[in-house]
Amino acid sequence: MPNLFISLQPIANFNKKPLVCSVSMHLQTPKDRRQVEIAKILSLPAEATTFFMGSCFGEEMHSRLIEKQHTSFSNPFGVIFHPFPLWRNWQLIAQSKDRNTFNQAFQKEGTFQHQGIFHSLLHANRFQKNSETELLNQVFKASHCAYNQASKADLICVTLGTAWIYRHIPTQQFVGNCHKLPQQDFIKSISKQADIKVHIEEIAHTIHQINPRAHIVFTVSPVKHLRDGIQENLRSKSTLISALHELLASAAPNVHYFPAYEIVREELNDWAYYKEDHMHPTAAAIDQVFERFYNSFFGSNASTLGAAL
Fold it and tell me: Residue 242: which residues within 8 A CB-CB, separation 6 or more?
């Protein structure tokens, strides 16, 4: 909880003045906290293109880059939190260059019909249509557009949200989104660190198939999944971080890690940097993370773009 300092104004005569309380909320200053050390990783130019995929926190970084007049793209399939559906979606992107190849790949995932509506459970809730053909066209269009964007991007950022995943019982498939289908149709479980590492390796490999020159940045979202439970959220985040660092020990030079979770959770470390739901960081917290992100990957000449905004 935030630190509250309450001061009582001295009162000589209770008949003249009421008791007055002044409350001030303390936010940590740089002197109060130990900073997460982040080395300068790249010096991308102002015209560099970025592509984000994963959690909603990546969209926050994306929107701030747009405000600074950078070219950026984000989440063609909507918000996806777990590395497995992220990997499967990167595979669809890679195979969408050719429609026939894409159709064969998508058949492995398939669609699910519920009450006359066809759903693509690998993607966000908006990927549902009245006919399977319409849905297939929607997924292909998003995949093909993402291929064109990712194949030209200089920096591709993958933001992981959770190690908890849901399996759809009728189709026996792990999903990216439950589409508000009946809760009893899903089984929830947490992935092992070894499996998470494999999924992340496959994501990096698939991205480099699409764009060999791109720099890849992995990060863990600081958004707390408290609906899973406090201990469950910490277990999930630690699993993601441990798997990522195990991978990075032997990763290619153009695969990087940015500690967004660590900055908010360990450096800011104050409830005042979270919204009332105690799950989502405030705009002030996100601004601080974005500044660090920007300084880590963009050159000083690029930072002048947003000066007039």
Answer: 193
User: Given the DSSP bridges, would you call strands 128-129 and 117-119 parallel, antiparallel or unpaired?
Assistant: antiparallel
- The b/e string for 62-83 (b: 16+ C-beta within 10 A; e otherwise) is bebbeebebbbbbbbbbbbbbb
Span 47-96, pLDDT tens digits: 999 999 999 889 999 999 999 999 999 999 999 999 999 999 999 999 99
CATH code for the domain in which residue 197 is found: 3.40.50.1110
How far apart, in whole angstroms, are the C-alpha atoms of residue 117 and residue 162? 28
Distance CA 162, CA 224 (A): 9
Q: 251 in a domain, yes or no? A: yes
Helix, strand, or coil (residue 232): helix
Instruction: For residues 215-242, give the mean pLDDT.
Output: 94
Query: Does residue 268 sit within a domain?
Result: yes
Q: How many domains does the chain have?
A: 1
**Per-residue tokens: 112:** 């699910």
pLDDT digits (tens, 9 = 90+) for 127-154: 999 999 999 999 999 999 999 999 999 9
> Angle between the 230-248 and 193-210 helix axes, to the nearest 10 degrees?
50
- 275 vs 75, residue with greater confidence: 75
List the domain range (segments joined by +) for residue 219: 3-80+132-164+190-302
CA distance 159 to 54: 5
How does residue 300 score in pLDDT terms, banded at 50, 70 and 90?
confident
Residue 185, domain member (yes or no): no
Helix axes 56-67, 283-297, angle to 10 degrees: 70
Please report, for residues 78, 155, 280, the alpha-carbon distance to residue 261 in angstroms, rounded to integers and kept in the order given: 21, 19, 12
Domain annotation covers residue 234: yes
Q: What does residue 199 show for φ and ψ, rounded to 5 degrees?
A: -60, -45
Q: What is the pTM of this model?
A: 0.85
Q: Would residue 294 be called left, alpha or beta, if left means φ above 0 and alpha means ψ between -120 and 50 degrees?
A: alpha
